Amino acid sequence: MHISRKTPEVCVPRLVGLMAVDARETARARGLLLTTPDRPEPPLAVVDYVVRQYPQPGAEVPRDSMVYVWFDFGPGEGGGGVHEPRIPRPPRGGPQRELDEPGDPSMVLSSP
């Protein structure tokens, strides 16, 4: 479907799965604006992938409408969260498993 510049309504493209830079270009080509509620500076997002969008793909919206997208890191790009430092630190020692001493009479199996 070809959309001319005179068409007041445009079809929202599928942006989920695209890298941020490609999502911005795809939206711009349709005459739509992109915004990211989960990022303070969307122009700086480059290698993140779109994981959600609103309005949904296929929706008819006026030209120059805002499309909201949410990003996630790509495979191997992190996103696992902050692991350190843990404050307060966990107590030393931790749970210990009780093991029987070698030669413990309670562990000797008697044969019938």
Automatic annotation (TrEMBL):
Spans annotated as Disordered:
77-112
**Entry's PROSITE patterns?**
PASTA
Query: Superkingdom of this entry's organism?
Result: Bacteria
Q: Which Pfam families match?
A: PASTA
Name all PASTA domain ranges.
6-73
The entry's protein name is: PASTA domain-containing protein
> What is the scientific name of the source organism?
Streptomyces indiaensis
